[in-house]
Specification:
With 161 residues, the chain is α+β, with helices and mostly antiparallel strands. The protein is 20% helix and 30% strand. It has one domain (2-157): Beta Barrel (Lipocalin). Strands 1, 2, 3, 4, 5, 6, 9, 10, 11 and 12 form a ten-stranded antiparallel beta sheet that branches. It has a two-stranded antiparallel ribbon with strand order 7-8. The protein is globular, with a radius of gyration of 18 Å.
């Protein structure tokens, strides 16, 4: 009887840990930059229907200084991704597997407006960096995207009103 109760209690605790929300602070993701909970197909709703604003961008291991209006991104529950790259709007599709691996079934499309050369370079760098993301992690109000080598990192936050 005691063993049955222990097994049931263990199962309940494991289930609760698996259902932790990003704000829940489970032991799987508690901490600093880039730490956090992996966004999986089952937990895509953690990042959908929110406009995320780029705070920091690191490309090939080096910080990339941001200028002008920062890029934004918004994810839909159906896998659609839309956003603003610094000058142009972009759109496309993203897939997240059960364990959190991100796949891009095609290139992102965008409008084709021109702008100052520095912002055009920033937008091009951002568009390449976002399509290099192989995993999203969420920690509190920040969303981190990393490439396979962790040499590219995008850090987004939810703007406060």
């Amino acid at each position: 009887m005691v063993r049955s109760c222990w097994l049931i209690l263990s199962g309940v605790l494991l289930s609760m840990a698996g259902c932790a929300t990003p704000e829940g602070g489970s032991s799987a993701g508690a901490g600093g930059d880039g730490d956090g909970l992996v966004v999986t197909a089952a937990h895509l709703d953690w990042i959908t229907d929110v406009q995320w604003t780029l705070e920091r961008m690191m490309v090939q291991g080096r910080p990339y200084p941001l200028a002008g209006d920062p890029p934004t991104v918004q994810f839909g529950a159906d896998g659609r991704i839309t956003g603003f790259g610094s000058i142009n709007r972009f759109f496309g599709l993203m897939q997240i597997e059960a364990k959190g691996r991100v796949r891009w079934p095609g290139s992102l499309g965008s409008t084709r407006m021109a702008g100052p050369p520095g912002l055009m370079r920033q937008e091009e760098t951002f568009m390449q960096a976002i399509q290099a993301v192989k995993q999203w992690r969420i920690a509190g109000t920040r969303l981190y995207g990393h490439d396979a080598e962790n040499s590219t990192e995008l850090v987004f936050s939810v703007p406060t009103p």
